[in-house]
UniProtKB/TrEMBL annotation:
<comment type="function">
    <text>Catalyzes the reaction of cyanate with bicarbonate to produce ammonia and carbon dioxide.</text>
</comment>
<dbReference type="InterPro" id="IPR048564">
    <property type="entry name" value="CYNS_N"/>
</dbReference>
<keyword id="KW-0456">Lyase</keyword>
<comment type="similarity">
    <text>Belongs to the cyanase family.</text>
</comment>
<dbReference type="Pfam" id="PF21291">
    <property type="entry name" value="CYNS_N"/>
</dbReference>
<protein>
    <recommendedName>
        <fullName>Cyanate hydratase</fullName>
        <ecNumber>4.2.1.104</ecNumber>
    </recommendedName>
</protein>
<dbReference type="InterPro" id="IPR008076">
    <property type="entry name" value="Cyanase"/>
</dbReference>
<dbReference type="InterPro" id="IPR010982">
    <property type="entry name" value="Lambda_DNA-bd_dom_sf"/>
</dbReference>
<dbReference type="GO" id="GO:0003677">
    <property type="term" value="F:DNA binding"/>
</dbReference>
<dbReference type="GO" id="GO:0008824">
    <property type="term" value="F:cyanate hydratase activity"/>
</dbReference>
<feature type="active site">
    <location>
        <position position="91"/>
    </location>
</feature>
<feature type="domain" description="Cyanate lyase C-terminal">
    <location>
        <begin position="78"/>
        <end position="150"/>
    </location>
</feature>
<feature type="active site">
    <location>
        <position position="94"/>
    </location>
</feature>
<dbReference type="InterPro" id="IPR003712">
    <property type="entry name" value="Cyanate_lyase_C"/>
</dbReference>
<dbReference type="InterPro" id="IPR036581">
    <property type="entry name" value="Cyanate_lyase_C_sf"/>
</dbReference>
<feature type="active site">
    <location>
        <position position="117"/>
    </location>
</feature>
<dbReference type="Pfam" id="PF02560">
    <property type="entry name" value="Cyanate_lyase"/>
</dbReference>
């Protein structure tokens, strides 16, 4: 029996070996590169049609067992430890550690007491060329959900 983690490793290894870009898989699936990558990394479930399109783009024929795993609503949260050890993920963690209270304060000042949805949500990751060194641009766009009084 294959685990979801093993299937993710298979997908990533095949994609890497064959020099396939997530953006190309996303185009074939018809969703954003961020969403498709999250799904194929095990954080979002896909439909049979999306799995077939992703498999075609990757050059993979998913078995019935693998298709079922990709269709299953996942247990979300993919970090192997409470504090990330991967340098890139750690830097994002550091951004939240340093600026999280600032983000929270400014969001509450603008919107009131509530949260930003990670369900009604989009993300865009892009590259901005810069003579001093290219920049990573990450845009998180989530619906504001106020806490209700009852």
């Amino acid at each position: 029996m294959t685990t979801r983690a093993e299937l993710t490793e298979k997908i990533v290894a095949h994609k890497t070996f064959n020099d396939i870009k997530w953006a190309d898989v996303a185009t074939a699936v018809g969703q954003s590169k961020e969403w498709v990558t999250a799904a194929l990394m095990g954080q979002i479930s896909l439909s049979k049609d999306q799995i077939e399109k992703a498999g075609n783009a990757l050059g993979l024929n998913f078995s019935d067992e693998e298709t079922a795993l990709l269709m299953t609503v996942p247990y979300r949260g993919s970090l192997p430890s409470a504090v990330p050890t991967d340098p890139l993920i750690y830097r994002l963690y550091e951004v939240i550690s340093v600026y999280g209270t600032t983000m929270k304060t400014l969001i509450e000042e603008e919107f009131g007491d509530g949260i930003m949805s990670a369900i009604d949500f989009t993300m865009d990751i892009s590259r901005e060329e810069n003579p001093a060194g290219d920049r990573v641009k990450i845009v998180l766009d989530g619906k504001f959900l106020p806490y209700k009084m009852y």
